[in-house]
Design a protein that fits this description.
2 domains, 12 strands, alpha+beta
Length: 191
């Protein structure tokens, strides 16, 4: 049986391309898990308020982490970015002098309890807390001005969709292209 060197090279190229595609497929899920995630909290409207706050205002929080909190997580985190709003003022990672982020999640990773706070000066802070044994509370206050609060009526958490960034499509396109080129070379060598 006579072997064709060109065919052998083409088969080697095809096997190399298939191996590379498989390696990319296995490596890709790990990189997807490292994509930042944003958790958004929407509190219920204040039940107690003095100007400039009204009972139409509420606490909202957006927290971006480098990775999901995980299943049955309990502890403090350091966000990449955050924003607290009370309907009148906003505190972000760019202007806060103090911030605290403590979470506990369920076995499925849903946020169950939390204690979050941010302040821009010693007298003005925005807080949301839902911890066992403590009062559920969303609140804010401006020194010598007004306040807003809501007790025992926690809001809800949602997860903002993270953009794929095209990595899945890019990897799939590269893999299919590599396999197509290798198959074409194999076909030419066999002819």
């Amino acid at each position: 049986m006579k072997t064709n060197p060109s065919l052998n090279r083409s088969l080697t190229t095809l096997l190399w391309a298939a191996t590379a595609a498989a390696a990319l497929s296995f490596a890709h899920p790990a990189s997807v898990q490292a994509v930042p995630i944003t958790y958004d909290y929407t509190g219920n409207t204040f039940t107690n308020a003095t100007a400039p706050y009204t009972t139409s205002d509420k606490v909202t929080v957006s927290v971006t982490l480098s990775m999901p909190l995980g299943n049955s997580f309990s502890g403090s985190v350091s966000p990449i970015a955050f924003s607290f709003s009370d309907g009148v003022q906003t505190i972000t990672n760019l202007n806060a002098i103090f911030s605290q982020f403590i979470f506990a999640t369920s076995p499925s990773g849903a946020i169950e309890t939390w204690n979050l706070a941010a302040s821009v000066n010693p007298g003005f802070s925005i807080v949301t807390s839902n911890e066992p044994g403590s009062q559920v509370f969303d609140g804010t206050a401006i020194p010598n001005s007004g306040h807003g609060s809501n007790s025992n009526n926690p809001g809800t958490w949602t997860v903002a969709a993270a953009p794929d960034g095209g990595t899945s499509i890019t990897l799939l396109s590269l893999s299919v292209t590599a396999l197509a080129v290798a198959a074409r070379r194999c076909k030419r060598a066999a002819a």
